[in-house]
Amino acid sequence: xxxxxxxxxxxxxxxxxxLLIRKAGDGIDPLVGTALSCIAAGAVFAVYLLGIGKLNxxxxxxxxxxxxxxxxxxxxxxHYFYYAAITKTGVSFSVSIAASYPLLAIILSWVLFKEPxxxxxxxxxxxxxxxxxxxxx
Length: 137
Prior knowledge:
Blueprint: H1 3-24, H2 30-52, H3 62-89, H4 91-98, H5 101-113, H6 119-136
Helix pairs in contact: 2-3, 3-4, 4-6
C-alpha cells in the first residue's frame, strides 16, 4: 500500500474516533475514557503481535524507548486532551484545533532535525492554518 493510502486510512480512523468520543459524550470522564482506549488498543496489539511472534525481547531496543515515549505523549496525554476537548466543545471545533498538529510537526522537525522547509511543506502549512481558521469560525 502507498503512503498516501495509509494516511487516508488513518484519517478515516481518526474521524471515526472523534465521532465515537462525541457519541460517548459526558457519560464517562475523559481521563477514564482515555485509559480504556489505551488499554483496549494495547490488548489488541499485544494479542496480535504475540500471535505473529513479533513481541519478544528482540523488539526491546533503543528505538522502543522512543515508541514508548510517543505512546505516552500521544495516546495517553494527547488523547486525554483531545477527548476532553470533544466532550466540552464538540467535534467540529476540537478537531479543527487539533488538526494543526502537522503545522507544529513541520516546524519542530525543521528546528530539531534540520529537515528542509520546501515549497510543498510551506504550502501545506499555509493550507493547515487557513483550513483551521475557516473551520474554527
